[in-house]
Amino acid sequence: MKTLQVDLGERSYPIYIGEQLLTDAQCFIPHIKGKQVCIVTNETIAPLYLQPLSDLLIDAGFTLETVVLPDGEAHKNLDTLNLIFDKLLGSRFNRQATLVALGGGVVGDMTGFAAASYQRGVNFIQVPTTLLSMVDSSVGGKTGVNHALGKNMIGAFYQPQAVIADVSVLRSLPVRELAAGVAEVIKYGLICDAEFFEWLEDNIAAVMSGDARAQIYSVVRSCEDKARVVAADEREGGIRAILNLGHTFGHAIETAQGYGNWLHGEAVATGMLMAIDLSCRMGKVERTVYERAERLLKAAELPTRSPKDMSNDQFLALMAVDKKALDGGLRLVLMEALGQAYVTADFAHSLLEQTLDHARNG
Amino acid sequence: MKTLQVDLGERSYPIYIGEQLLTDAQCFIPHIKGKQVCIVTNETIAPLYLQPLSDLLIDAGFTLETVVLPDGEAHKNLDTLNLIFDKLLGSRFNRQATLVALGGGVVGDMTGFAAASYQRGVNFIQVPTTLLSMVDSSVGGKTGVNHALGKNMIGAFYQPQAVIADVSVLRSLPVRELAAGVAEVIKYGLICDAEFFEWLEDNIAAVMSGDARAQIYSVVRSCEDKARVVAADEREGGIRAILNLGHTFGHAIETAQGYGNWLHGEAVATGMLMAIDLSCRMGKVERTVYERAERLLKAAELPTRSPKDMSNDQFLALMAVDKKALDGGLRLVLMEALGQAYVTADFAHSLLEQTLDHARNG
């Protein structure tokens, strides 16, 4: 087991990354201060992992409640959030209560926001069950729910007491979801860690085939990279935006295709290539960077072309309503070297059009 | 105009207290960083003060939206909160937006929580329009909404950019609501400021009759007192609990009588006398403290007797479900001297029963 300490002053917390951690009481117990614990999970995860984790907590003497939410992004809203509050209040949970988020990003985001808001803040522990949530939600403190008019528009910055990333659970993850997580792993290499990118080029087969050591290293290195970026910008005013490499293009694809048809990580994979392509056209990076990224994404079974039925105009319209563009001028995360991303509103519209054409047609 | 700086490090903010501040652009403009401003108010306040404040902000060049909520504690819930998010997202408000809470405690609590949660946090300015909210909500950062199973159970600690307390608006306040605010003013004297208590004994008629200087002084001193207590305990772990003098008794009255039949401040007034009475019976304070408090509350036209139809058993049952008692043992805020309150679970049940009898029968 590896332990990574996320250093945020009095809000610091550890990330434990290893195998068989869901049955390791010592990962959980030191981070629970009261007697009341509520596990929040979803219908898909509950049959797989709820029982062993419940047993562990009951054996340790805690008063345990569980909330099983419906699965999927469509339920990530205030109404579903209220199901958590119903359970906590119905069970008379107090301010010393601890919530445990057992699931992927949706469960983590909602449970974290419930913890941030219940009696104005109780403790929570994150137990991510997808590769994407291990590398994306373990660091950064973003919690929240969607609104009919926008994703993640209601929420809080709120840190967990601990994150327990057990790569053993990735064995039950569909390969398409594993790949979607790998897209975010590759992102860290691209934006801030060229050495890690090279390691991934050599080890992508091991990561995809379920090799625990390779998966643990991928999660550790991704979390370290993200922690470094976030530490410089906890509440998201500046440099942290590089974490959105590929996301503005990707959100346009997700929106156009309907959420769930393209997984988030798949859309980001294609979006990252588009950002690199534009960077090449602007003369910021060599075309070989694009080719290496494309090869790596393909090895991870990720899409590298945008949908055939999306016109440039549709792309541009959807990119302009992306959350990061609400301020006015469209800003993009681009690359100036392998392992070095930057944020800019300074790019030629004609080159962007070329990138959109290229992404669709190759 | 008096300015009181609430010192909370990078979350510090000023409270402006004076007359005709609602039309004073210099109170508002320095605290708005973006171009988008949304005033949140309610149906009762809107006809009185929305127009002049809107004019001020439009004249200053801001993009202005307004949300007029239904009035009353019954609407302080997640559904009403969503009306604010609907407006903000429908108007494409960004992270530089500023919310302005124009109203009493309910509007302030909901707007503050909306600001804490919208895009994980935007700025807000509080413009309290009741004496209660001027002295109770200006300091402390408590925001939130009710849940069907409990008051203020969902929320955040979140600080405003500024509080603008314009005592001119108190002239339109019904005398019963003015008195309810005075109950909380008197509370500060009782719990931590004997000198202020004595000032109130001399000046209560001026405060009640609408004398601006006396009202400004009351708000300034109350906010100073509260800031001192809160500064020692921003996230409410210990000493801050003395701010709840009379509240456990008071909540029992409010619950038994139905919210709105007794105003919060009225229930707190009676509850404070009960806490002092119990303190007297325990030998902590002289009976003269009780008599002086009773005289002052009566001069402020506040009730000093609990409802005739509430039995001791009903009181005790309702006190045990008070939020502060969720941990187990019932803790009460009691007095050990005029201007000195403390929190304890150490009191004889028989004396508490005597206090309950006395409060009802005199």
From TrEMBL, chains A, B:
**Which reactions is this enzyme annotated as catalysing?**
7-phospho-2-dehydro-3-deoxy-D-arabino-heptonate = 3-dehydroquinate + phosphate
Record-annotated 3-dehydroquinate synthase N-terminal domain positions: 67-179
Its GO CC terms?
A: cytoplasm
Q: What is its main location?
A: cytoplasm
Q: Where does Zn(2+) bind?
A: 184, 247, 264
Pathway given in the UniProt record = Metabolic intermediate biosynthesis; chorismate biosynthesis; chorismate from D-erythrose 4-phosphate and phosphoenolpyruvate: step 2/7
InterPro entries attached here? Dehydroquinate_synthase, DHQ_synth_AroB, DHQ_synth_fam, DHQS/DOIS_N, DHQS_C
Q: Establish whether keyword Coiled coil is in the entry.
A: no
| GO terms, biological process | amino acid biosynthetic process; aromatic amino acid family biosynthetic process; chorismate biosynthetic process
Q: Record-annotated residues binding NAD(+)? A: 71-76, 105-109, 129-130, 142, 151
Question: What does the record give as cofactor?
Answer: Co(2+); Zn(2+); NAD(+)
Q: Does the keyword Disulfide bond apply?
A: no
Where is it located? Cytoplasm
Q: Give the record's cofactor note, including how many are bound.
A: Binds 1 divalent metal cation per subunit. Can use either Co(2+) or Zn(2+).
| EC number in record | 4.2.3.4
> What keywords does the record list, in alphabetical order?
Amino-acid biosynthesis, Aromatic amino acid biosynthesis, Cobalt, Cytoplasm, Lyase, Metal-binding, NAD, Nucleotide-binding, Zinc
Please list which residues make up the signal peptide: none
Q: Which family does it belong to?
A: Belongs to the sugar phosphate cyclases superfamily. Dehydroquinate synthase family.
Q: What is this protein called?
A: 3-dehydroquinate synthase
Organism (species): Gilvimarinus xylanilyticus
Q: Which gene encodes it?
A: aroB
